[in-house]
TrEMBL record:
This is UDP-N-acetylmuramyl-tripeptide synthetase. Carboxylation is probably crucial for Mg(2+) binding and, consequently, for the gamma-phosphate positioning of ATP. Signal peptide: none annotated. It holds the Pfam family Mur_ligase_M. Residues 350-478 form the Mur ligase C-terminal domain. The gene is murE. Pathway: Cell wall biogenesis; peptidoglycan biosynthesis.
Length: 509
């Protein structure tokens, strides 16, 4: 991979990002790109970016071989440099160019939403794999998959990677023969311009509820919504959940760059304007749900996806995610039978995973970790199984998402029968204080609550004290294999593994 300096300057000029440059050889090409001085920099271009950037990082990069730097201000007048007015945008455009614009060789389907991004992306990935084996890449919160072999799959650090890593991994995907990419786009990705310059083939909007508002994320809900809707402005075809909050704002965003013919609306309420697809729940068991998708007009009928579908994971919210996935893949002309099969077999790590016991009820492991998602989850279980006791093991993280604590108190009071509060990524806070905060706002006349700080013990206690007919929800941690504690990722066996170990101990094989 390489990038000629004159080409870099042209790209920046064209996008009105260039402020000035001091370059000794415009014909020179760099063969390394980095924003982290701890990496190797031989013949490289280095980006000075980030809230916590220090001038000494640039000196380290230069001493390690960086030939030129890009920054928003001059740090070192002796070294070649390009000054720009937006370092994040510059990083995105120049990363794309450095990696040979791999986005042009991929059909990219991207989804956003406060909840359901990961699930919907896995659904689409599992459907597409049926039709394009070994040709589908996935960039999700859980895994990034850039090729067909085991070494091409690795854990993600962010939901949407920084632009440099995004284009690097797209390049790897293309070089590995991938033709399609399914990815999650977080609001932060737009806030931080990680996806700047990208146009998605299909963009989907699932929902928005207040979340991710705080010092390091979005200052206000309006800012959160503004960032989220950018995905639709930057997509050729749009899929929108008609029942989302702020629908009018979201739909107007889609109309900024797409005609109504290229916007597909789905939802559960047939009386709403412009609905293209109606979703209706049909049957749900503890293991799967069957729902119906019906095209309501000629535009929708042309996708040929009307029919019943089955999902191997329950939750009416998952039917919404499933419908979004059906539309996205229907737009690719994929036979309905393949969509049906892919969806039926879809599995999303840590999302509504169910574990059956012989005599201690049914256990769900789910990543629900704020009021809205817990409300959707517990509300669904409560409606489907009104006679069962709902027993929840949950904790809330330290150092972030403070509002989730009051949200858990509220939703547990509204819907749970029994709750054990426990540890979940306490960071630099004391997990006992976090639990006490949740405990303090629970109405104890409605839900029997206790605190067991050791998460494994909390799960053990909940399972051993339950019986058939009970529904246990191990919430908020999903399939996470560590507890983030005082800056260290302390290994944790994962909730499903802990639950299965407890069952093995008390029920045998
Ligand atoms: C607030 C925020 O968005 N921060 C992100 C941002 O950090 P930053 O650019 O400000 O960089 P920084 O961490 O301050 O570090 C300064 C710079 O110095 C460099 N450095 C540092 C040390 C050194 O020795 N040498 C050196 O060169 C670093 O490489 C960096 O470029 O860019 C970094 C990548 O370059 C991200 O890791 C980081 O995400 C933080 C850690 C994060 O986790 N953000 C969350 C809020 C997030 O983005 N979440 C969304 C999902 C939310 C949702 O579900 O909707 C996501 O997409 O994951
Ligand atoms: N469409 C939806 N509406 C409401 N809640 C949902 C929806 N889909 C999933 N959930 C709930 O949210 C949890 C997280 O789902 P998922 O990981 O798919 O969302 P996400 O958007 O990727 O979340 P995050 O941004 O927190 O990583 C699930 O475990 C489930 O409890």
């Amino acid at each position: 991979m390489s990038l000629k300096i004159s080409q870099a300057i042209d790209i920046l000029k064209q996008d009105h990002l260039l402020v000035s440059s001091q370059v000794t050889d415009l014909d020179k090409s760099v063969t390394n790109i980095s924003y982290n001085s701890r990496e190797k920099q031989d013949n490289g271009i280095f980006f000075c970016k980030g809230n916590n950037f220090k001038a000494e990082y640039l000196q380290q990069a230069i001493s390690q071989g960086a030939e030129i730097y890009v920054a928003e201000k001059e740090f070192d007048s002796d070294t070649d440099h390009i000054i720009v007015n937006d370092i994040q945008k510059a990083l995105a455009l120049l990363s794309a160019a450095y990696f040979g614009n791999p986005e042009k060789d991929l059909f990219i389907i991207a989804f956003t939403g406060t909840k359901g991004k990961t699930t919907t992306s896995y659904f689409i990935y599992d459907i597409l794999k049926e039709v394009f084996p070994k040709k589908v890449a996935l960039f999700s919160t859980i895994d990034r998959i850039v090729g067909p072999n085991p070494e091409d799959k690795f854990k993600s650090d962010l939901t949407t990677p920084e632009s440099l890593e995004l284009f690097r991994d797209m390049r790897r995907a293309v070089d590995n023969g991938m033709t399609h990419l399914v990815m999650e786009v977080s609001s932060q990705a737009y806030k931080k311009n990680r996806v700047y310059g990208l146009t998605f083939d299909i963009g989907g909007f699932l929902n928005i509820t207040p979340d991710h508002i705080g010092a390091n994320e979005h200052p206000t809900y309006e800012d959160y919504l503004f960032c989220k809707k950018q995905l639709l402005i930057n997509s050729k075809i749009n899929i929108i959940n008609r029942d989302t909050n702020d629908f009018d704002t979201v739909y107007s965003a889609a109309l900024e760059t797409s005609s109504a013919d290229n916007i597909y609306l789905f939802g559960r309420d047939q009386t709403k304007d412009n609905l293209d697809f109606l979703l209706t729940s049909k049957e749900a068991t503890l293991k799967d749900s069957i729902f119906h998708v019906e095209a309501l007009n000629d535009k929708a009928v042309s996708l040929n996806i009307t029919g019943d579908y089955k999902l191997g994971l329950v939750g009416d919210f998952n039917e919404i995610n499933g419908t979004a996935a059906i539309l996205a893949t229907g737009l690719l002309d994929i036979p309905t039978a393949d969509i049906y099969d892919g969806l039926q077999g879809a599995h999303v790590p840590g999302r509504m995973e169910h574990i059956t016991s012989k005599s201690h009820g049914i256990i769900f492991v789910d990543y629900a970790h704020n009021y809205a998602s817990m409300k959707a989850l517990l509300g669904f279980l409560h409606t489907e199984y009104p006679k069962s006791k709902l027993k929840v093991v949950v904790g809330s993280p330290g150092d972030k998402g403070i509002s989730r604590r009051a949200g858990f108190s509220k939703v547990l009071t509204e819907l749970a029968d029994v709750a054990i509060l426990t540890t979940d990524d306490p960071g630099f806070e004391n997990p006992a204080d976090i639990c006490a905060e949740i405990y303090g706002k629970i109405d104890h006349s409605k839900v029997s609550t206790k605190i067991v700080l050791d998460r494994k013990e909390a799960i053990r206690e909940m399972i051993t004290s339950s019986q058939n007919g009970d529904i246990i929800v191990l919430a908020a941690k999903g399939n996470d294999a560590y507890q983030k504690t005082k800056g260290v990722d302390v290994p944790y066996p994962t909730d499903p593994v802990v639950a299965k170990t407890v069952l093995k101990d008390i029920e045998g094989e």
